[in-house]
Protein backbone atom coordinates (compact mmCIF):
# COMPACT_ATOMS: atom_id res chain seq x y z
CA UNK A 1 0.00 0.00 0.00
CA UNK A 2 1.32 3.42 -0.94
CA UNK A 3 1.02 6.16 1.67
CA UNK A 4 0.77 9.85 0.86
CA UNK A 5 0.40 12.36 3.70
CA UNK A 6 0.41 16.05 2.94
CA UNK A 7 0.43 19.04 5.31
CA UNK A 8 -1.20 17.19 8.21
CA UNK A 9 -2.15 19.29 11.20
CA UNK A 10 -3.61 17.92 14.45
CA UNK A 11 -4.01 19.99 17.58
CA UNK A 12 -5.02 18.64 20.98
CA UNK A 13 -6.19 21.69 22.95
CA UNK A 14 -2.93 23.62 23.07
CA UNK A 15 -0.54 20.93 21.80
CA UNK A 16 0.18 20.76 18.10
CA UNK A 17 0.88 17.02 17.68
CA UNK A 18 1.21 17.27 13.86
CA UNK A 19 2.30 20.59 12.43
CA UNK A 20 2.33 20.41 8.64
CA UNK A 21 3.50 16.81 8.42
CA UNK A 22 4.24 15.57 4.89
CA UNK A 23 5.38 12.02 4.14
CA UNK A 24 5.26 9.59 1.22
CA UNK A 25 6.01 5.89 1.69
CA UNK A 26 6.31 3.68 -1.39
CA UNK A 27 4.64 0.28 -1.46
CA UNK A 28 6.63 -2.69 -0.16
CA UNK A 29 8.97 -0.81 2.16
CA UNK A 30 9.68 -0.99 5.88
CA UNK A 31 9.81 2.58 7.14
CA UNK A 32 11.25 3.52 10.52
CA UNK A 33 9.34 6.46 11.97
CA UNK A 34 12.02 7.76 14.29
CA UNK A 35 11.50 10.47 16.86
CA UNK A 36 11.96 11.31 20.51
CA UNK A 37 9.03 10.99 22.90
CA UNK A 38 6.04 13.20 22.22
CA UNK A 39 6.90 14.27 18.68
CA UNK A 40 3.74 13.01 16.95
CA UNK A 41 4.56 9.42 15.97
CA UNK A 42 1.48 7.85 17.55
CA UNK A 43 -0.71 10.65 16.25
CA UNK A 44 0.45 9.94 12.69
CA UNK A 45 -0.05 6.19 13.15
CA UNK A 46 -3.58 6.66 14.48
CA UNK A 47 -4.31 8.93 11.53
CA UNK A 48 -3.15 6.24 9.09
CA UNK A 49 -5.19 3.65 10.99
CA UNK A 50 -8.22 5.86 10.45
CA UNK A 51 -9.05 6.25 14.15
CA UNK A 52 -8.35 9.98 14.33
CA UNK A 53 -8.89 12.66 11.74
CA UNK A 54 -6.44 15.46 11.10
CA UNK A 55 -7.72 19.03 11.49
CA UNK A 56 -6.39 19.71 8.02
CA UNK A 57 -4.23 18.11 5.34
CA UNK A 58 -4.74 14.93 3.34
CA UNK A 59 -3.98 11.23 3.76
CA UNK A 60 -4.26 8.98 0.73
CA UNK A 61 -3.73 5.21 1.03
CA UNK A 62 -3.59 3.56 -2.40
CA UNK A 63 -5.76 6.36 -3.74
CA UNK A 64 -8.33 6.24 -0.91
CA UNK A 65 -8.86 8.32 2.20
CA UNK A 66 -8.72 6.28 5.44
CA UNK A 67 -12.10 4.65 6.08
CA UNK A 68 -13.83 1.29 6.11
CA UNK A 69 -12.16 0.08 2.90
CA UNK A 70 -8.63 0.96 4.00
CA UNK A 71 -9.18 -0.30 7.57
CA UNK A 72 -9.79 -3.79 6.19
CA UNK A 73 -6.29 -3.72 4.66
CA UNK A 74 -4.44 -2.08 7.55
CA UNK A 75 -3.24 -4.09 10.53
CA UNK A 76 -2.80 -2.08 13.69
CA UNK A 77 -3.15 -2.68 17.40
CA UNK A 78 -2.72 0.21 19.78
CA UNK A 79 -2.26 -1.64 23.03
CA UNK A 80 -3.50 -4.80 24.64
CA UNK A 81 -5.59 -2.97 27.21
CA UNK A 82 -8.67 -3.55 25.06
CA UNK A 83 -8.35 -7.31 25.46
CA UNK A 84 -9.74 -9.39 28.28
CA UNK A 85 -6.89 -10.33 30.60
CA UNK A 86 -8.74 -13.45 31.75
CA UNK A 87 -8.45 -14.87 28.21
CA UNK A 88 -5.77 -17.32 27.19
CA UNK A 89 -3.42 -16.71 24.27
CA UNK A 90 -5.35 -19.34 22.28
CA UNK A 91 -8.72 -17.72 23.01
CA UNK A 92 -7.36 -14.31 22.02
CA UNK A 93 -6.16 -15.72 18.69
CA UNK A 94 -9.55 -17.41 18.15
CA UNK A 95 -11.25 -14.07 18.73
CA UNK A 96 -8.92 -12.30 16.30
CA UNK A 97 -9.48 -15.04 13.72
CA UNK A 98 -13.26 -14.58 13.95
CA UNK A 99 -12.92 -10.82 13.73
CA UNK A 100 -10.47 -10.43 10.84
CA UNK A 101 -11.09 -12.32 7.61
CA UNK A 102 -7.43 -11.98 6.63
CA UNK A 103 -6.11 -13.50 9.88
CA UNK A 104 -3.65 -16.25 8.94
CA UNK A 105 -3.89 -18.76 11.77
CA UNK A 106 -1.06 -21.00 10.67
CA UNK A 107 1.29 -18.01 10.51
CA UNK A 108 0.10 -16.93 13.96
CA UNK A 109 0.79 -20.40 15.37
CA UNK A 110 4.29 -20.41 13.84
CA UNK A 111 5.03 -17.00 15.33
CA UNK A 112 3.82 -18.17 18.75
CA UNK A 113 6.30 -21.04 18.61
CA UNK A 114 9.11 -18.80 17.43
CA UNK A 115 8.44 -16.45 20.34
CA UNK A 116 7.99 -19.25 22.90
CA UNK A 117 4.46 -18.19 23.79
CA UNK A 118 2.32 -20.89 25.36
CA UNK A 119 -1.22 -21.06 23.91
CA UNK A 120 -2.81 -22.03 27.24
CA UNK A 121 -1.34 -19.12 29.17
CA UNK A 122 -3.68 -16.39 30.36
CA UNK A 123 -2.93 -12.78 29.52
CA UNK A 124 -2.93 -11.70 33.15
CA UNK A 125 -0.18 -14.23 33.93
CA UNK A 126 2.04 -12.84 31.20
CA UNK A 127 4.93 -10.43 31.63
CA UNK A 128 5.04 -7.15 29.77
CA UNK A 129 7.48 -8.62 27.24
CA UNK A 130 5.21 -11.62 26.60
CA UNK A 131 2.27 -9.29 26.01
CA UNK A 132 4.33 -7.24 23.57
CA UNK A 133 5.08 -10.48 21.73
CA UNK A 134 1.41 -11.47 21.63
CA UNK A 135 0.53 -8.03 20.33
CA UNK A 136 3.07 -8.48 17.58
CA UNK A 137 1.58 -11.85 16.61
CA UNK A 138 -1.92 -10.33 16.42
CA UNK A 139 -0.74 -7.52 14.16
CA UNK A 140 1.64 -9.50 11.94
CA UNK A 141 -0.50 -12.59 11.39
CA UNK A 142 -3.02 -10.70 9.30
CA UNK A 143 -2.52 -10.76 5.53
CA UNK A 144 -2.65 -6.98 5.41
CA UNK A 145 -1.19 -4.45 2.95
CA UNK A 146 -0.08 -2.01 5.64
CA UNK A 147 1.25 -2.91 9.09
CA UNK A 148 1.45 -0.19 11.72
CA UNK A 149 3.69 -1.04 14.67
CA UNK A 150 3.75 1.68 17.31
CA UNK A 151 6.73 1.22 19.64
CA UNK A 152 6.63 -2.58 19.36
CA UNK A 153 9.55 -3.02 21.73
CA UNK A 154 8.80 -0.47 24.41
CA UNK A 155 9.80 -1.76 27.81
CA UNK A 156 11.33 -5.08 26.79
CA UNK A 157 14.88 -6.31 27.32
CA UNK A 158 17.47 -6.36 24.52
CA UNK A 159 17.22 -10.12 23.95
CA UNK A 160 13.44 -9.95 23.61
CA UNK A 161 13.84 -6.96 21.28
CA UNK A 162 15.99 -9.07 18.99
CA UNK A 163 13.40 -11.88 19.05
CA UNK A 164 10.68 -9.38 18.19
CA UNK A 165 12.72 -7.94 15.32
CA UNK A 166 13.46 -11.41 13.92
CA UNK A 167 9.76 -12.22 14.10
CA UNK A 168 8.92 -9.00 12.29
CA UNK A 169 11.34 -9.95 9.53
CA UNK A 170 10.15 -13.53 9.14
CA UNK A 171 6.47 -12.51 9.42
CA UNK A 172 6.81 -9.59 7.00
CA UNK A 173 4.92 -10.20 3.77
CA UNK A 174 6.95 -9.06 0.78
CA UNK A 175 5.08 -6.36 -1.08
CA UNK A 176 3.32 -5.06 2.00
CA UNK A 177 4.24 -1.76 3.62
CA UNK A 178 5.25 -1.40 7.24
CA UNK A 179 5.66 1.58 9.51
CA UNK A 180 7.53 0.97 12.71
CA UNK A 181 7.66 3.86 15.16
CA UNK A 182 10.36 3.95 17.81
CA UNK A 183 12.92 6.00 19.64
CA UNK A 184 15.15 2.88 19.99
CA UNK A 185 16.89 3.61 16.70
CA UNK A 186 19.97 1.42 17.03
CA UNK A 187 17.84 -1.63 17.79
CA UNK A 188 15.71 -1.45 14.67
CA UNK A 189 17.96 -0.01 12.02
CA UNK A 190 19.01 -3.34 10.55
CA UNK A 191 15.49 -4.09 9.30
CA UNK A 192 14.63 -0.69 7.82
CA UNK A 193 14.44 0.13 4.09
CA UNK A 194 13.62 3.80 4.67
CA UNK A 195 13.65 6.23 7.56
CA UNK A 196 11.68 9.32 8.48
CA UNK A 197 12.85 11.53 11.34
CA UNK A 198 9.90 13.17 13.07
CA UNK A 199 10.34 16.20 15.28
CA UNK A 200 7.77 18.62 16.69
CA UNK A 201 5.03 17.25 14.49
CA UNK A 202 6.98 17.45 11.24
CA UNK A 203 9.01 15.05 9.14
CA UNK A 204 12.41 16.73 9.07
CA UNK A 205 14.21 14.04 7.04
CA UNK A 206 13.01 11.18 4.86
CA UNK A 207 15.47 8.96 3.02
CA UNK A 208 16.44 5.48 1.90
CA UNK A 209 18.26 3.79 4.83
CA UNK A 210 21.39 2.80 2.85
CA UNK A 211 21.61 6.20 1.17
CA UNK A 212 21.46 7.92 4.54
CA UNK A 213 24.26 5.69 5.88
CA UNK A 214 26.40 6.37 2.82
CA UNK A 215 25.73 10.10 2.74
CA UNK A 216 26.50 10.59 6.44
CA UNK A 217 29.19 7.90 6.72
CA UNK A 218 27.62 6.66 9.93
CA UNK A 219 24.80 4.56 11.35
CA UNK A 220 21.20 5.72 11.28
CA UNK A 221 21.27 5.82 15.06
CA UNK A 222 24.25 8.19 15.06
CA UNK A 223 22.80 10.33 12.26
CA UNK A 224 19.57 10.55 14.26
CA UNK A 225 21.36 11.66 17.43
CA UNK A 226 23.40 14.28 15.55
CA UNK A 227 20.35 15.66 13.82
CA UNK A 228 18.30 15.81 17.01
CA UNK A 229 21.09 17.55 18.92
CA UNK A 230 21.68 20.09 16.16
N1 LIG B 1 -5.42 12.60 23.31
C1 LIG B 1 -4.51 13.58 23.53
N2 LIG B 1 -4.87 14.70 24.23
C2 LIG B 1 -3.99 15.71 24.44
N3 LIG B 1 -2.72 15.71 24.00
C3 LIG B 1 -2.30 14.63 23.31
C4 LIG B 1 -3.17 13.52 23.04
N4 LIG B 1 -2.48 12.59 22.33
C5 LIG B 1 -1.23 13.10 22.17
N5 LIG B 1 -1.13 14.32 22.74
C6 LIG B 1 0.07 15.19 22.73
O1 LIG B 1 0.51 15.33 21.39
C7 LIG B 1 1.94 15.28 21.32
C8 LIG B 1 2.37 14.16 20.39
O2 LIG B 1 1.98 12.92 20.97
P1 LIG B 1 2.24 11.51 20.28
O3 LIG B 1 1.65 10.47 21.17
O4 LIG B 1 1.77 11.55 18.87
O5 LIG B 1 3.85 11.43 20.30
P2 LIG B 1 4.84 10.21 20.12
O6 LIG B 1 5.94 10.73 19.25
O7 LIG B 1 4.12 9.00 19.68
O8 LIG B 1 5.38 10.03 21.59
P3 LIG B 1 5.84 8.71 22.42
O9 LIG B 1 7.11 8.24 21.80
O10 LIG B 1 6.06 9.29 23.79
O11 LIG B 1 4.71 7.74 22.35
C9 LIG B 1 2.44 15.12 22.75
O12 LIG B 1 2.78 16.39 23.24
C10 LIG B 1 1.23 14.56 23.48
O13 LIG B 1 1.23 14.98 24.83
TrEMBL record:
Domain of life from the UniProt record: Bacteria
SMART domains: AAA
Domain ABC transporter: 3-225
GO molecular function, one term: ATP binding
Annotated PROSITE patterns: ABC_TRANSPORTER_2
Keywords: ATP-binding, Nucleotide-binding, Transport
Gene3D superfamilies the UniProt entry points to: P-loop containing nucleotide triphosphate hydrolases
Stored InterPro entries: AAA+_ATPase, ABC_transporter-like_ATP-bd, ABC_Transporter_VariousFunc, P-loop_NTPase
Protein name per UniProt: ABC transporter domain-containing protein
Amino acid sequence: MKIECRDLVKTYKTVQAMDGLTLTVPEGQILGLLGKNGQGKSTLIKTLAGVIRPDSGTVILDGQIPGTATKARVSWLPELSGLDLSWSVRHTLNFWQDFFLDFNRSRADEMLKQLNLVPGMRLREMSKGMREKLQLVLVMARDADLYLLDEPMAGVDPVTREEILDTILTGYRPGSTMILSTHLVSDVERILDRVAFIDQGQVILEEDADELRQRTGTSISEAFKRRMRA
